Amino acid sequence: MPAELLKIHPQNPEGRKIARAVQILREGGIIVYPTDTIYGIGCDLTNRKAVERICKILDIKPQKLDLSFICNDLSHISEYVKNLETPTFKLLKKNLPGGFTFLLEASNKVPKILDVNKKTVGIRIPNHNIPRMIVAELGNPLITSSIKDDDLIKEYTTDPEEIYEDFKNVVDLVIDGGAGGNIPSTFVDLTQAEPYIIRQGLGELLR
Description:
One of its GO terms (molecular function) is double-stranded RNA binding. The chain has 207 residues and is of the alpha/beta class. It has a single domain, classed as Alpha-Beta Complex (DHBP synthase), CATH 3.90.870.10.
């Protein structure tokens, strides 16, 4: 069966539609959803079979898993990272929610969930109501990757209907939250003594 296509209002997401997305995630489904940067593909972090499916879709070996977590707020982040000391916490508070992925040292909880010895983890809190409401209701982060296009000129697909055509046979739900962006998040390494920008994207880092 092809994936469900669900139109959700980006500013005021309808509760029953968010509940439908969460139901699919709890059943081990994979969803495509909008963020403040580009569309992402994700599943419930705690569902091992769903994580394995995402690895197959993206052609990644589970041992090489290098995906980000979508969290709802800073308290959510603290469960999955360690050394969230005052300077780091202040930096995160200044910049999140926003167009950033922060690389942090993974807590002991991460390898237990994923069965992969991950030392670091990328954390996102998008400035977008749809993914944050989904994660809040789900109660777990989404493990996620960006949707990339095979077209070398157009790196990121921005049209939800086009994304649906590309992914309808491999995922369970595509959320249409309007046109997506084509600039990825700014990727910042916080595992060193000073924040280091690995990739400049949408977010302008406030220090």
